[in-house]
Amino acid sequence: MIRFIPVASGGPSYSKGFTLMEVLVVISIMTILTAITLLSLAGLSPAGKFNSAVGAISETLGLARETAVAHNTYVWVAFATPVAPSGPPSLSTLVVASADGTNPFGSAWSTSTLPVALPDPRFIVLTKLQKYSNCQFLDAGVITSSNIPALPSQASISANALATNPSGFFTINSPTGLITYTRVFEYNPSGLVYNGPNPVTFVEFGVQPGPVSTATVTSQNVACFRVPFITGRTMLYRP
């Protein structure tokens, strides 16, 4: 059994979830930002494309938290890596919200309820598919202070990792086939961050330029994301 995020909302007292107009506004904003990101990637060098992708991922995390707090709902940020099971390392992000402000999974997620095939009436997909063929996902602890001197040390690598399910948390069809999102973390209605049933200091993941065939750091141009439990605000570390 995969346990995941059994927390009460603890959020503001206003109504939960989204109205139709709010859904359209949030999706429109995220769609515009995605389009801007894609335009910014055109014509850039590989290093420039990677840096733009890092900025886009950081913006995605910030908007996900803002949406959770503003609409008093649960929001999940999901990652697929690689995008194609037999393809080279790559990365896709997806932001999914609870449609009515409740946690559809209750106190635990079991393998019998996963993955959730989107679209699903319990969820709202807030972003169009964001794919980064120039990025490779790195688990918590792979990037260290030897790669980024300003990166503070951490006590527990496994406790800070994103929740992982090899069968996926969400699946969604794309023009190139089914994408399975195997890693996820959650913002609750108060903007607190969870990667499992118990609070952690922060959740962490990293990215480096890709594609490469190893899960170790192979580039000096890396990025480490840490999202603290209490504030939920993304901390981005670069060399």
Write the layout of secondary structure elements.
Elements: H1 20-41, H2 46-70, E1 75-80, E2 91-98, E3 116-118, E4 123-125, E5 130-132, E6 135-138, H3 157-160, E7 163-164, E8 170-174, E9 177-181, E10 183-187, E11 193-194, E12 202-209, E13 223-228, E14 235-237
String of helices and strands: HHEEEEEEHEEEEEEEE
N-to-C CA distance:
38 Å
Task: Indicate the radius of gyration in whole angstroms.
Answer: 17 Å
Mean pLDDT, to the nearest integer, reads 80
- Categorize the overall geometry: globular
**Which bin fits the share of residues in helices?**
10-25%
Number of domains: 1
Beta content: 25-35%
Q: Give me the secondary-structure category.
A: alpha+beta
Number of H/I helices = 3
Most strands sheet: 7 strands, antiparallel
